[in-house]
Amino acid sequence: MVHAQEAGHAMTPQDLVARGLTPEFAVFLTSMLPIIELRGALPLAIRMFQIPWPEAFLICFIGNLIPVPLILLLLDPIVKMLSHIRVFRLFFSWLFKRTRHRGSIVIEKYEEIGLLAFVAIPLPMTGAWTGALIAFLFGLNFVKSLLVIALGVFIAGIIVTCLSLLGWLGAIIAGAGFLLLAALGFWKF
Fold first, then answer.
1. What confidence score (pLDDT) does residue 189 get?
2. Would you say residue 128 lies in a domain?
3. Which of 14, 35, 57, 145 has its CA 20 to 30 Å from the CA of residue 66?
4. Count of structural domains within the chain
């Protein structure tokens, strides 16, 4: 039998479980990954591994937040160190330009509220990793950014949980709740 790694494929959460990890730990690790984050790990936990939703929510929420303080604290020294190497300098230039473009309008105008909305919307490339990168690039306060990103992940978790449990009805309920929250948040400004 050929293992996923030997065949040149990325290891999946199912592969991790097959190798002896608990489904909970596989989901926890998955929720820490960029792009996948809570948005991908939570449906996996609820639908595939049948983890009760409150436990799945907590596992994914904590897992998704673990990289955030590390990104906020360590990104600057890592970028400075690696930017001496041409390939990394080009990569960081591309990544930072792309991230500034994605977040510039909302973050420049609304700062933390904009960051909250950006992280809370459960779409690809709008999660905690990108939110932490945006907070770093726009020089937002560390503590405020950490709290705002945590709240955004929490809101995204509620939306994704509703979608996972209720299908389209959950999407409508979650969407209406998010629109109301967004309207109230932006109305203050």
1. 46
2. yes
3. 14
4. 1
Give Cα 142 distance to the centre of its chain: 17
Determine the Cα angle at 86 with ends 79 and 8, to 5°.
85
Residue 138 lies in a domain: yes
Domain assignment present for 5: no
- Compute how many other C-beta atoms are within 10 angstroms of the C-beta atom of residue 91: 14
Alpha-carbon gap, residue 29 to 130, rounded angstroms: 18
Angle between helices 128-137 and 67-82 (to 10 degrees): 50
Structural domain span for residue 163 = 13-187
Q: Could you give the CA distance from residue 119 to residue 90 in angstroms, rounded to a whole number?
A: 26
Residue in this structure with the two tokens 């906020």, named with its chain if needed: 72
The number of C-alpha atoms within 13 Å of 124 and in the hemisphere containing its C-beta is 0
Span 159-189, pLDDT tens digits: 899 889 887 777 677 677 767 766 766 555 4
pLDDT at residue 184 in the model: 65
Type of residue found at 107: I
Neighbours of 168 (CB within 10 A): 8
Residue 2 lies in a domain: no
Question: Which residue numbers in the chain have pLDDT < 70?
Answer: 1-9, 102-106, 108, 171, 174, 178, 181-182, 184-189
